[in-house]
Design brief:
The protein is α/β, with parallel strands linked by helices. Helix content is 33%, strand content 22%. Removes the phosphate from trehalose 6-phosphate to produce free trehalose.
Length: 250
């Protein structure tokens, strides 16, 4: 069945379009996936966006030749209809000083990774689970000192400090006010705690939220893993649009 051309599709990156790996810079996109995204974006009239905690430049490098709409750093930066609103690290001097402190405290600890994103910072302890309490404690202390302009966000073996006004739900709602998204039914696919805010927004807007993998969720539908999403995206691209029929319930 050909899907009605009335959907807007939002896709998370880590754990959704790529498998979670020990080192965040080592992720790999499946062969042919960027081309599938390009075909599906065209079928949706451009109403397809990547919504990620990663910088847009990183997403572009991994998803080339697909360079469509995107929100990076949980919406701190965005690209809509080719117009980029970038992250500006110089606007976050207190955060930059805090990141230097994190490096001083955590660089000597093997396998704890500091991911400096310019306008936010994430600390990963996937390869050093015994250091979770220390890493979390340092981030929570820094977030408290930074004050209300920043917030801390937890994910799978990672925590991140980012501007308080960021959030996947907020940026999805922003995209939904602009062409070609306005007036369509949003569909958001993600896998982590950081995506639940986006799921809540999509549910509120009458859309469909899809969780990848296990875990408690407010999403109405679920796919088991990244390969299942790849197959779904390929099916939708071949159908000429998003087809929710047969999508497993959560």
């Amino acid at each position: 069945m050909t899907a009605p051309p009335n959907h807007a599709l939002f896709l998370d990156f880590d754990g959704t379009l790529v498998e979670i790996v020990d080192r965040p810079d080592a992720v790999a996109v499946g062969a042919g996936v960027p081309q599938t995204l390009e075909r599906l974006s065209q079928a949706l009239g451009g109403a397809l966006a990547i919504v990620s905690g990663r910088p847009i430049a990183f997403l572009d490098g991994k998803l080339a030749p697909f360079h469509g709409d995107a929100a990076g750093l949980h919406g701190v930066e965005r690209r809509l209809a080719g117009v980029l609103h970038p992250c500006r690290p110089e606007e976050h001097p207190a955060l930059r000083r805090g990141i230097a402190e994190l490096h001083e405290a955590l660089d000597p600890i093997e396998n704890v990774i500091i991911e400096d994103k310019g306008c936010s910072v994430a600390v990963h302890w996937r390869m050093a689970p015994a250091e979770e309490a220390r890493a979390k404690g340092l981030l929570e202390d820094l977030a408290a000192r930074l004050g209300a302009e920043y917030r801390i966000q937890h994910g799978k073996m990672v925590a991140e400090i980012l501007p308080a006004l960021s959030g996947k739900g907020r940026i999805i709602a922003h995209f939904m006010e602009s062409a070609p998204y306005a007036g369509r039914r949003p569909v958001f696919i993600g896998d982590d705690l950081t995506d639940e805010n986006g799921f809540e927004t999509v549910n509120r807007l009458g859309g469909v939220a899809v969780r990848i993998g296990d875990g408690d969720t407010c999403a109405s539908h679920r796919l088991p893993d990244v390969p299942a999403l790849y197959a779904t995206l390929e099916r939708w691209a071949n159908a000429g649009g998003v087809d929710l029929e047969g999508l497993p319930e959560a």
